Amino acid sequence: MAQGKKNILIVDDHPIIGVGMELLIDTNIDKAEVELVASGKDALQKLKERDYDMILLDVNLPDYNIFSLIPNIFRIRENARILVFTSIPEKIMAKKALQYEGYGFYQ
């Protein structure tokens, strides 16, 4: 990421997880500006409005399957950097997810 402010988008429908991640980022990354949304639809709208250095994306969202959301993200922001996170031990999901360039998977 470039020097200066880091713009990070957190996409998670569980407020305690999203706020916890935001707190971790705020206390560990200098000059981080974090936005938190609870749905894929809201994430896509935010991505139309601005670019982010990183998108932290929950696997389980109420309105999107991540395998349909990720291609939509890349349509809006071709060079998006996405880190998907989950507590679900799912090797098949990780293998499928890693087919996208600029994308990471954390379990």
Question: Can you put this structure into words, describing what you see?
Answer:
The chain is an alpha/beta fold and 107 residues long. 39% of the residues lie in helices and 23% in strands. It contains 4 helices and 5 strands; from the N terminus they run βαβαβαβαβ. The protein has helices at 15-28, 40-49, 66-76, 91-97, and strands spanning 6-11, 32-37, 54-58, 82-85, 103-106. A 5-stranded parallel beta sheet has the order 2-1-3-4-5. Helix 1 (15-28) links the parallel strand 1 and strand 2. The longest helix has 14 residues, at 15-28.
Strand order of the largest sheet: 2-1-3-4-5
Rg, rounded, reads: 13 Å
Class by alpha and beta content: alpha/beta
Order of helices and strands: EHEHEHEHE
Q: Poorly predicted ranges (pLDDT <50, ≥5 residues)?
A: none
**Distance between the ends:** 23 Å
List the total number of helices: 4
- What's the shape? globular
Mean pLDDT: 85
Number of strand elements: 5
Strand share of the residues?
A: 15-25%
User: Helical residue percent?
Assistant: 25-40%
Sheet of most strands: 5 strands, parallel
Distinctive features:
107 residues, alpha/beta, globular
SSE map:
Elements: E1 6-11, H1 15-28, E2 32-37, H2 40-49, E3 54-58, H3 66-76, E4 82-85, H4 91-97, E5 103-106
Parallel strand pairs: 1-2, 1-3, 3-4, 4-5
Helix pairs in contact: 2-3
Quick structural overview:
The chain is an alpha/beta fold and 107 residues long. The protein is 39% helix and 23% strand.
